[in-house]
Design a protein that fits this description.
Largest sheet: 4 strands, antiparallel
Strand order of the largest sheet: 2-3-1-4
Helix content: 25-40%
Number of strands: 6
Structural class: alpha+beta
Strand content: 35-45%
Order of helices and strands: EHEEHHEEE
Length: 103
């Protein structure tokens, strides 16, 4: 599995409530994304940086999402260019499921 961390600086700080409103508006876009296992929306404590942590079945699945059109969508929606970093995810601890799995 692959974890992708996406970050972007917001043009002005937002509150948790405003971020939640914005994120709920874009969440359906990811609902049926091929290969996406889970997505966490992120907001820094000072409200100046946002992004997401995505767990993908493969890097290829992730790269199919992060197209020029997706980057433009992020820039238009949030007013900032996203930065994407990929990480191998060799082990996953899931306390809700009570499991430790190979990624």
């Amino acid at each position: 599995m692959i974890t992708a961390i996406v970050q972007f600086r917001l043009p002005k700080p937002v509150t948790r409530e405003k971020a939640q409103e914005l994120f709920l508006g874009t969440a359906p876009k990811y609902r049926d994304a091929a290969g996406l296992v889970r997505k966490y929306y992120l907001l820094s404590a000072d409200g100046t940086t946002a992004g997401g942590a995505y767990l993908w079945k493969s890097r290829e699945d992730a790269q199919r999402m992060y197209t020029a059109e997706w980057r433009q969508f992020i820039a238009t929606t949030y007013g900032a260019e996203p930065k994407v970093e990929y990480f191998e995810t060799p082990v996953i601890v899931d306390n809700l499921a009570g499991s430790i799995d190979r990624g």
